[in-house]
Design goal:
By secondary structure, the chain is α+β, with helices and mostly antiparallel strands. The chain has 13 helices and 17 strands. The chain is about 30% helix and about 20% strand. The strands form 5 sheets. Strands 1, 2, 3, 4, 5, 6 and 7 form a 7-stranded mixed sheet that branches. Helix 6 packs across helix 7, helix 6 (about 200-220) packs antiparallel against helix 9 and helix 9 (about 270-285) packs across helix 10 (about 290-300). The two termini are about 45 Å apart.
């Protein structure tokens, strides 16, 4: 495998470099690691090279990420790949043409110097990004909630809490730029003065409940109850609840879009997303609460105008339902019980994830466990997910339907 040269048509002479240079100094050893690019990366690289306009333009960014304790991953602008060492049966020689002052009696084009011998390559395996580290990193510097400026800061260690920039976060999160952007939005992270700010579920629920009320108050078109001028909402949050305008402005963008219409900035709210986060905030700490009582509380929080958007499916991956408690009145109102069971607290490794799930319940309905498999494979990669299920799950058909049991392994 020559470096910087084309092989001759007839024959080639391979030589090992001298152990010492002509100046009497030892020549430094060279070591190479070969990376095998999968077709999807190779096609993207080739396409970018064809469209490259300047010599200094980066053709296609490939970044290796990971802390010393992590398995290294390779990130493209929109995908993540685990780097895995694979042994090869045939050794590969890394060669190049000899230097101009090297003594050789054969034409340079027919001679190659062996610089290294490789017995393994790095293979790229598609994986889901490790986005849960976002919460772990930003937890200590998270937003403290309404009126936090007057109530004072929470008691913390005397050491200064680090605040992270987007670039700093990107350097330690094992995911691509596009996946990181999605992960930040899903975890309700905004950027304030160049620093990333996590909005915790309980504190965010309180703010969103008030914001929905302000949306109703300032709405000017009954036919579009999800649109209202943004200025009075931001002003009310600042004056009445001491939410700084930079924070409230970013929250409006996070849960909708702020656009200019008729010379006025208006907020087009994403009601479904807001209702979901209100429900998620109510779930925090819930242990065996009656489902009908929880849904009633959820309706009260979002207000009468938005109760039609309430749907338990919005909270998939955040809760468990259990049979109702047996009481003398159960036959009248057999409401199941709901408990907080967030996917964010489950392990990232498939084996331990499935083990924890089957410790929680000895058997699962497929539609109940599937939401808790998110993050083990790329989103939408059903084939890879099914392979994991086949490896860790035993499917049993019973009278009540199909159940998943843990697969016993030796």
């Amino acid at each position: 495998m020559p470096v910087g040269s084309n092989l001759p048509h007839k024959s080639v002479i391979l030589r090992y470099p001298p152990s010492r240079s002509f100046e009497g100094l030892e020549e430094p050893e060279e070591s190479y690691q070969l990376l095998e690019l999968p077709p999807e990366i190779l096609k993207a690289v080739e396409a970018k090279l064809k469209g490259k306009e300047r010599e200094d333009e980066i053709a296609f960014p490939l970044t290796i990420k990971g802390k010393p304790s992590d398995d290294a991953v390779l990130c493209t602008p929109d995908s993540t790949f685990l780097l895995r060492t694979v042994g090869i049966s045939n050794s590969l020689l890394i060669c190049r043409t000899p230097s101009a002052d090297a003594q050789t009696t054969t034409p340079p084009s027919a001679t190659l110097q062996v610089r290294d011998t490789c017995h393994e390559i790095l293979e790229c395996v598609p994986v889901a990004p490790n986005l849960e580290r976002i919460r772990t990193i930003l937890k200590d510097s998270a937003w403290q909630g309404l009126n936090s400026s007057t109530l004072g800061k929470r008691k913390r260690d005397s050491k200064k809490i680090k605040k992270w920039t987007r670039d700093q976060l990107n350097s330690v999160i094992q995911g691509s730029e596009e996946e990181l952007a999605i992960g930040l939005k899903e975890r309700n992270v905004i950027e304030i003065d160049g620093k990333m700010l996590l909005l915790p579920p309980v504190e965010l629920k309180e703010l969103l409940s008030i914001t929905l009320s302000l949306l109703v108050i300032h709405n000017v078109h009954p036919s579009t109850p999800h649109i209202a001028p943004s200025a009075p909402i931001i002003s009310s949050l600042d004056e009445d609840h001491e939410v700084p305008s930079p924070i409230s402005n970013e929250i409006l963008k996070l849960f909708g879009e702020v656009v200019e219409e008729d010379d006025e900035m208006r907020w087009k709210a994403d009601i479904k997303r807001i209702v979901r986060e209100v429900g998620n905030g109510l779930l925090i700490g819930a242990q065996a609460k009656k489902l009908d009582a929880f849904e009633e509380e959820w309706k009260n929080e979002v207000g009468e105008g938005y109760v039609d958007h309430i749907d338990l499916k919005l909270l998939e991956g955040e809760y468990l339902l259990s049979p109702p408690a047996i009481t003398s009145l159960s036959f009248i109102s057999p409401s199941p019980l709901i408990s907080h069971f967030p996917i964010s607290q489950l392990p990232l490794q498939p084996a331990t994830r499935f083990a924890d799930l089957f410790l929680t319940r000895p058997k699962w309905k497929p539609e109940e466990i599937i939401p808790f498999l998110k993050g083990l494979t790329r989103d939408g990669d059903i084939k890879s997910r099914d392979k994991l299920v086949q490896k860790f799950v035993r499917v049993v058909k019973e009278k009540e339907g199909v159940w998943w049991y843990p697969r016993r392994t030796n």
